[in-house]
Amino acid sequence: MSILKKQICKNVKLLIMVPSRPTAFGERREIRLTWSRTLPENVRVYFIIGKNLNNTINNAVMNEAIYHKDVIMNDLYDSYTNLTLKIYSMLQWKQAYCAKTLYTLKTDDDTIVHVQRLLYWIRKKFNRIVSKKPKTIFGRVFAGTKVNRDPKKPWYVDPVVYNKRRFPVYCNGPTYILSKSTVRALLSAAANVRFMTVEDILFTGILAKKANVYHIDAQQHFGLRKEIRPHVLCDRNHVPYITSLYNVTKQEMKSYYHKLNSISCYPKKRRKRI
Predict the structure, then answer these.
(1) Domain carrying residue 161
(2) Which residue(s) pair with 240 in the sheet?
(3) What is the pLDDT of residues 102-113, one digit of tens each?
């Protein structure tokens, strides 16, 4: 499954895992040139890639993996219908190679991450919550979502697989953080659950509920590209809450990386003298 060595996660506190299509060479290149170019010693970024029907592409991915040493390859055919299995294999890999790593950030390859800022919020906020609730997911939380029963839609779910009218609370798929205990709990809960194609709802919703995992709504930390503004909310140390942006094309990666890095806090309002 991987050409990486067993000790790759020694002293790693944050593991960032990026599911990526075999053909997304441009997206991975832009990530390497921007937000993952310079990382702290306690952070690792790995791309999770399945197999393509074209062996020329598979060979190119293998060469990429050898050169960059940041690719985890599995034997699954890389498709939307296999995305759930891809995420499952990602969590299995984490548990096999990085079981002691405290946090796992799952993020898509159309996402920009401000790693240093995320580490700040882990120290300032996430650690305190996990110390009290070890099984926690941080992300953009959704509740009361209706199950799609239209077979023509990509998010269709067969009643045989899931027979309730609404899904449990879950975190939106592009970006979420799992604590160490959460990864272990989700893998254990997956043993007796039927898989479906809506992977974020399965792992952060259905399996999380079964495993009694706690959800923290962190949408102020994980944003959409269209939400970026020159001035944003910050804490008292003047650190912006926003740590990532998703739905960014490879052509936009550099410009939005600069925007995420250069945003400033809203100016303080001066009190009027009476």
Answers:
(1) 14-259
(2) 234
(3) 999 999 999 999
Number of domains in the chain: 1
Q: 3-state class of 182 per DSSP?
A: helix
Question: Does residue 209 form part of some domain?
Answer: yes
Token pair for 19: 């599911």
- In contact, 6 and 97? CB cutoff 8 Å: yes
d(CA 220, CA 88): 27
Kind of pairing between the strands at 136-142 and 264-265: unpaired
- What is the distance between the alpha carbons of residues 206 and 167, in angstroms, rounded to a whole number? 7
CA distances, 179 to each of 35, 67, 85, 102 (Å): 22, 30, 20, 6
137: CATH? 3.90.550
Alpha helical stretches, state H, 71-114: 83-97
Burial of 160 (0-12, 13-18, 19+ CB in 10 A): exposed
Beta strands 170-179 and 103-107, pairing class: antiparallel
171-193 confidence digits (pLDDT tens): 998 999 999 999 999 999 998 89
Residue 190 contacts residue 207 (beta carbons within 8 Å): yes
d(CA 151, CA 172): 22
Cβ neighbours of residue 225 closer than 8 Å, sequence gap 6 or more: 245, 246, 247, 248, 252, 256
Sign of the C-alpha dihedral, residues 19, 102, 121, 144?
positive
In this structure, are residues 13 and 123 in contact, taking their beta carbons and an 8 Å threshold? no
